[in-house]
TrEMBL record:
CDD domains for the chain: PWWP_ZCWPW2
UniProt keyword list: Metal-binding, Zinc, Zinc-finger
Protein's UniProt name: CW-type domain-containing protein
PANTHER family hit by this protein: ZINC FINGER CW-TYPE PWWP DOMAIN PROTEIN 1, ZINC FINGER CW-TYPE PWWP DOMAIN PROTEIN 2
Position of the signal peptide: none
Organism of origin: Umbra pygmaea (Eastern mudminnow)
């Protein structure tokens, strides 16, 4: 995720965030986000806290800095830019009044796309398939979608009741297996795959075609019986 100028406004605010990027430490026990200058990044290599030129945040033991409020950034002519995650990624989706729910980034069966880009070319929405019973799908704003982190633990949500609570429990059970899979393997377990819908439609058309072809024969046999 990056913070980029959107229009000329408060110069002090812009100069602070300009050419800087939020980057996540890849140490399994850390996964904290740090704000660094773009010049200090090599996107083809893993990044860890000890590579941060800012010595105040160059160790995994240092707490993560607070993310700026997006509405505050917009007021000062800045915007959040979210990195495009690959299809098949395992993520957590933050939705209002719900716990962070595990999901898979997968193509919309109607559009066959898994991400919607804005006019500036950056991702704005992801199509996700939520784990649970049953699986459901949704187009979620990119700002509410984050990579599934290994230290994530199942929280206790007393507000969940009945079928929703059961679905969440099933989702967390599935998550223990899904997080070990590769992207392609995750896509193969998705319920809303375009190729499956196409196959179902073709099967239905073949069945209808057989019924239509059988109808004249059945009519003829009925006539003979009547005679």
């Amino acid at each position: 995720m990056s913070v980029l100028p959107d229009r000329i406004s408060n110069q002090d605010e812009i100069s602070y965030y300009e050419d800087k990027t939020w980057v996540q430490c890849e140490a399994p026990g850390c996964l904290k986000w740090r704000l660094v200058t773009g010049a200090d990044l090599d996107q083809d290599k893993p990044w860890f806290c000890n590579m941060n030129p800012d010595t105040l945040f160059s160790h995994c033991s240092v707490p993560q800095g607070a993310f700026p409020n997006e509405s505050h950034l917009q007021k000062h002519g800045l915007k959040m830019v979210y990195s495009l995650m690959p299809v098949g990624s395992f993520v957590l989706v933050n939705a209002r009044c719900w716990p962070r729910w595990p999901a898979i980034l997968c193509p919309d069966p109607n559009e066959e796309e898994y991400a919607r880009l804005g006019s500036d070319g950056y991702v704005e929405y992801y199509h996700v398939e939520f784990l649970g019973k049953p699986h459901t799908r949704y187009w979620a704003a990119a700002k509410y979608v984050e990579p599934y982190s290994i230290p994530f633990k199942k929280p206790h949500y007393r507000t969940l009741r009945g079928a929703i609570k059961k679905s969440y429990e099933v989702a967390m059970e599935e998550a223990t297996k899904v997080k070990e899979m590769g992207c392609q393997e995750r896509l193969e377990m998705c319920h809303f795959r375009p190729q499956e819908l196409l196959a179902q439609a073709q099967t239905l058309m073949h069945s209808i075609d057989r019924m239509l072809k059988q109808s004249p024969d059945q009519t003829e046999s009925q006539v003979k019986i009547t005679d």
